């Protein structure tokens, strides 16, 4: 386990480096991975559907961005709470519960659309529920990943987790666009319910796993505050989270505006979904690279990926051609794949084993800066247009990333 100086913690064995899919050799991990993959399809398709409806019904960049805010805001306000729940309660039961809430709600949205009673305001609370499920998935299911595969295969398992998220993004947006164009919005929401059900069934195939640490028995308020105290004592964690917060505020905040850029090109729902899918395809390429190579200097890979992503994003925004925007988004997202596939591992290995749930909770809060970025970007897009708002966000993000690393450069020294 890496410390702030990049050295291995003595209690952790050296990580295995044999094969791109070595973690899949662990019994029952494939079921856990498939469950996360299907859940990611459902999550990303939910975001695509919400942004599509907002763009079609309102023609307002502000309201389109608000769909992203709704999806991501639970990570900002619920991250540490989710980490506390992961450390304190039964993680398996927590994951199952979020599925049992989401499945009927997605079906209800589908019925509402089919019967023509679905209104735009209904989309936002539904996305909040999806976002809450995301908090529990990040803090509970991913903690189960560590318990299941162990430290030796954690690097590879987290790269595969990132790959499943990226492919879920690509496939989920394609499913959303294709379903809307072929059978309508209502059927698309029913598809979400089916995906969530399949994810639940796959997760139920995973037996209860012995925790690597004892369940936390602190009082709830004490445990909640303890998560924030990590920010005073764990320099490496603060450095990782600083990069995460910058990238999510200035980079990922553009994703709902793909709908607006696609509208500028005059394309239909399927090609809109195809353009949005490039974000997932590129992340798959970056994640697969990390899973195969398992680079030792993963902190440097983390920062390099973020920098590449923000630089090339300007090409996506300024290209006058659909194909040009698609190519730039693919390359930009490849950088995000490098970033995303090292993120979870960096967080979990920068603290002691008894603090992983809380560290993941803080990670979800750092990711939760994204809705704030979406609000700012939406307002800027209303003033100067979506394209120049994206360019401005990427430029300011690069400067802020540099300042963050000057303040806390520890992440650059983290190794496996």
Describe the structure.
This protein is mostly helical. The protein has a single domain, classed as MFS general substrate transporter like domains (Growth Hormone, Chain: A, Up-down Bundle). Helix content is 78%, strand content 0%. The chain contains 15 helices and no strands. α3 packs antiparallel against α4 and α8 packs parallel to α13. The longest helix has 30 residues. It is globular. The chain starts with 28 loop residues before the first helix and ends in a 9-residue tail after the last helix. 59% of the residues are buried.
Summary of the model, kept short:
With 416 residues, this protein is mainly α. The chain contains 15 helices and no strands. Helix 11 packs antiparallel against helix 12.
H-E string:
HHHHHHHHHHHHHHH
**CATH class placement:** Mainly Alpha
- Estimate the global geometry from the Cα principal axes: globular
The SS-based structural class is mainly alpha
Number of strands: 0
Please name the CATH architecture: Up-down Bundle
| CATH fold label | Growth Hormone, Chain: A
Whole-Å distance between the termini? 7 Å
Helix content: over 70%
The domain count comes to 1
Average pLDDT, all residues: 82
Low-confidence stretches: 1-17
